[in-house]
Amino acid sequence: MSKLFAPATLGTPDGTGLELRNRTFLAPMCQYSITKRDGVPHAWQMTHLGARAAGGFALVYTEATAVTAQGRISDQDTGIWNDDQAEAWAPIVDFIHSQGAAAGIQLAHAGGKASTYAWLPGHTAAGQRGNLRPRDGGWETIGPSATDVLGLASPTAMTQEQIDASISDWAAAARRADAAGFDVVQIHAAHGYLIHQFLSPLTNTRTDAYGGSFENRTRYAREVITAVREAWPAHKPLAIRLSGDDWVQGGWSIADTARFALEAFGMGVGAFDLSSAGIGAYHGPSGPGFQVSLAAAVKAAVPGAFVTAVGLITEPAQAEQVLVTGAADGVSIGRAALKNPNWPAIAAAELGEPHENIPFPAQYWRANW
Ligand code: FNR
């Protein structure tokens, strides 16, 4: 049996753990498809996520799903800040379960990177990148500091009251995610969005308890984790997605990430997905497996955590190698899964898994996996 298709367990505070059929995760990917602009998921999310659950992924993550309307990247993002949204997620979760996959929701707040155009062809004509101003149908954004290092319009620096309110929003979203039946919450702390804006010295210039030292810059993230962990049942795993490195001198580094991940693990975060960057222009490496070293660093620093690698992992043998070398415990697949929803089933066949371990739906048995 391959490592990639060996069952896995995501740890939980109560010790029960969540069993997964293999180690392939669908990476969270915004779909910019909520044309009613109400954050309510619909047939597109059912089809997109459902097809990938049927295609064999062990854990299917939703796109970045906003904890408040203000925290959406664009007005076509999904949300879970109200009960209508939670109720619309429930049948999608049920279908994912019916296909043998676990359902994860990525909870997100875009902070100063909110209120942008939907990143779809035709929505981003030349000169339309960046924030959508309120006069053009956008909204005011908030962040740790009124800094423009993101290359976007500056957010308003959050007051203590706004910080407190936003912590409550994360917790309320986690409670609704539980009601909708999700198995895993992943906190989006990567890609230059709100939590990452607090973590990185490039975007956090506060002089109060939320800025300056490592301890202060990580305070907002710790408060989010504490609140979500309290709201999220102890038998369900809590995950986090981190940008392992800003790839910029003076930015958030992999050493910071490893230190923070160890703290987060101690606070009940069991699973870590290691992406990178998101603040300003990209200065990092590129090419196959370009972020695997970040996962390996966290795996070495946090024994007992379940760590996934992501980023241009496209080939089954390459994914298997990530696990065989001990760099990570699982892989998150993004664009390769857009091209091919059956990526896991085909990978299992290619890696020589026995027929009973190839995750395909019974309806497709004639495909002769
Ligand atoms: C993404 N990515 C992403 N990441 C995230 O944390 N939340 C999100 O909602 C999105 N949205 C999104 C949309 C689309 C269309 C793409 C292609 C990507 C990043 C994604 O999860 C992944 O980290 C990267 O795509 C790198 O992995 P791959 O695609 O090389 O496997």
TrEMBL record:
Superkingdom per UniProt: Bacteria
Keyword Lyase belongs to the record: no
Keyword vocabulary terms for this entry: Flavoprotein, FMN, NADP, Oxidoreductase
One matching Pfam family: Oxidored_FMN
InterPro entries referenced in this protein's UniProt entry, alphabetically: Aldolase_TIM, OxRdtase_FMN_N, YqjM-like
Domain NADH:flavin oxidoreductase/NADH oxidase N-terminal as annotated: residue spans: 3-348
Named cofactor requirement(s): FMN
Protein name in UniProt: 2,4-dienoyl-CoA reductase-like NADH-dependent reductase (Old Yellow Enzyme family)
